[in-house]
Amino acid sequence: MIGFNFDYHRPGTPEEALSCFRESTGQGLQTVFYSGGTEFLTHARTGEISAGAVIDIKDIPECRELQWDGEILMIGAALTLNELAGSGEYPLLALAAKGVADHTSRNKITIGGNVNSRLPYREALLPLLLADAAAKVAGPEGERTLPLSELVGQGGRLPSGELLLQILVSRRAVERPHFFRKKTRMTKVGYPLVSLAADREGSRISGAFSGLCGQPFRLAQVDEVLSDKSLTPEAQAAEIRSLLPTAVTADQYASAEYRLFVLGRMLHELAEEWEECR
Amino acid sequence: MNRSIRQSKTVYRLNVNGETKEAMGRPADLLLDTLRTGLGLTGAKKACKNGDCGACTVIVGGDAVHACLMLTAEAEGKPVRTIEGLADSPVQRAFVDHWAIQCGFCTPGFIVKGHSLLEHHPDADDETVEEWLQSNLCRCTGYAEIKDAIQAAKKGFAD
Fold first, then answer.
1. Domains of chain B, earliest start first
2. Chain A interface, best mutation among B32, B135, B150, by max A CB count within 10 A
3. How confident is the model at residue B159 (pLDDT cuts 50, 70, 90)?
4. Are the C-beta atoms of residues A194 and A183 closer than 8 Å to each other?
5. What are phi and psi for residue A186, nearest 5 degrees?
6. The complex's ipTM?
């Protein structure tokens, strides 16, 4: 049971959603956009967050689209992770999506919710960082498109009052050879000790990581290390360690040293899989 | 605007197991509470309340979801299927035939998830069964019998 009340709105267009937001905030209600809602409901039940109004975006057609517009794949923010995993449109995103939570939860968790999550993992974000994806956002100033990493990269979150409509990815990025590994402490369902998504364009390898540090990240310097054929996986792991944006996570799931060991094993697997380009 | 519910109570009209049912509730009410308290359908179990255990699994709009992580308002306009709607279904019969039950608390969730699995993948391979069943926990650890029951129920679905 959720111990507080809120208004519930289910608008049919972005304009209606923004109008609801203005009206609710104008009444002094703390207002949130709601997609899958799993994280909101979990924290609302425990009283960690509250809201006076909830705007459910799942009836906005734009937020439910998955289609190509020429060379751009438009991914609606309210598509569930299972819908993306099952569509076959974006294989690396499908792999990353299937690594999040469990199958039943993935029928509810949406891509917009995952990339904007308060949790530090956000594994569905990894392929999108590699793809230099763009975000189509509706807000008080109208619609705008900007790099997704500017919004939710490096621990960022969508500003209050802005609605993520779609994520835009180029065909070139979608079709690159790719690699995805997720290692958990014990079972397949669980938070990652380390998740690595990588893709390749010619001999250039890019990687994005989750679990290793406090937030998912992709760094140009790390891409340089991953692409350096003269380095062994052990040397790459050592180089990457020196480039990490924050300290390696140490928690109840694994020590920092063990996470680095897991990273080294993943880099071995990556080197084996893409041996031909080394 | 498709739907707006203010903080006062409202009457939800839900399509549950093929019947239209009405229940009074708040916008903040969870589907699990409405099913159990508002409609008396206590088959979906309240356990972790956090989407971790799968004991509250129901099928909404054709997909298995945790009823503890869904607002009742979200289920309006979509068919809801609970364990009560799966009486004498192939999966339920297979659970009985294969003794896929120990204490029984997790059983409704497993049967609903298994039914949804076979609706989507009537010929599910072992890997798919494994992936789908990872959503549900059995503290009695009767997983082997549960997987056997799901595999056996495939024939019932085919028939």
1. 8-83 (3.10.20.30), 85-157 (1.10.150.120)
2. B135
3. low
4. yes
5. -140, -65
6. 0.96
